[in-house]
Automatic annotation (TrEMBL):
The lineage of its organism: Bacteria, Bacillati, Actinomycetota, Actinomycetes, Micrococcales. This is Tripartite tricarboxylate transporter substrate binding protein. Keywords: Signal. Residues 1-25 form the signal peptide. Belongs to the UPF0065 (bug) family. InterPro entries: BUG (IPR005064), Bug_dom1 (IPR042100). It comes from Phycicoccus avicenniae.
Amino acid sequence: MARPVRTIAGVVALTVLGTFAVLDAADTAQGSDARAAMTVVAPASAGGGWDLVAREMQQSMRSDGIVGSVQVTNVPGAAGTIGLSQLARRAGQANTLMVTGTVMVGGIGLNDPSTTLQDVTPIARLAEDFEVFAVPADSPWQTLEDFVEDWQEDPSIPVGGGSAGGIDHLVAGQLAQEVGVDPAELRYTPHAGGGELTLSLLSTASGTVPIGISGYNDFRDLIDGGRLRALAVVAPEPLEGVDVPTMDDLGYGGVDLVNWRGVVAPPGISDDEQAELAAIVEETTRTGSWDEAVARNRWERSWAGPDEFEEFLVSEQDRIDALLEELQLS
């Protein structure tokens, strides 16, 4: 028997409240010395791209002795905007970082929340991550062109990805526009994270999706293990060690969104505290552990410090807002 919606909502509410309580308790215990103890918030479920960045940072900070104690906390929901709102309420807490990126910018543009990235403190942009289209290994679509031909005939084919308005959704809209499918007819099915999406792709149950879009690392193990097949990557150049065509290779150069990764801090911290957090993050990205993470996850470095990152966030929000409107997704 299906669980009543009211019960599920109650469980979710209790889970989120419990997570916030843990964060507040951690802050009390840690004090304000970011090098002694740090909380890194991944504003999504465990197992997705933001969680991966947070845990790679945690490992690099710990193993190289940059921060004494580092904990990662997940606050999922609404393309990261729930985590963003929670971060904004933690004004002055200079021992906290939150991972952000293109998905959150899209979520802000789509959902128009009361809190935006201009309400928190920019720290740094770290790297770029790349999207991939994937299908189950037994899918009849051997190539992206196979899918496109069927999609053009039947735009109601569901396409799975992360949060509505996020980069997966935008990439689906860009491809629709490239191949002559009306973006307004796009049947996009959002998921809470890469883990939930892969379960849907691998299931034969009613309501699951036959094709998904996510960060390469969300699908990597299943692609390597032969359970998923990658049809295309959204990257300016082929990914090293990955024998999958790029969108440019396939003639779809207009599908070009890159999923950047960055970190922000709560509002209300001092300039010195902002500079210290930026120094910690920069030191982290210079470690051997981080070098290994970049290579392993096939990221591309794209460092920007606080001032440059702040300017980038404004221009990126304008760009994504315009794209959402152009694709009729806002």
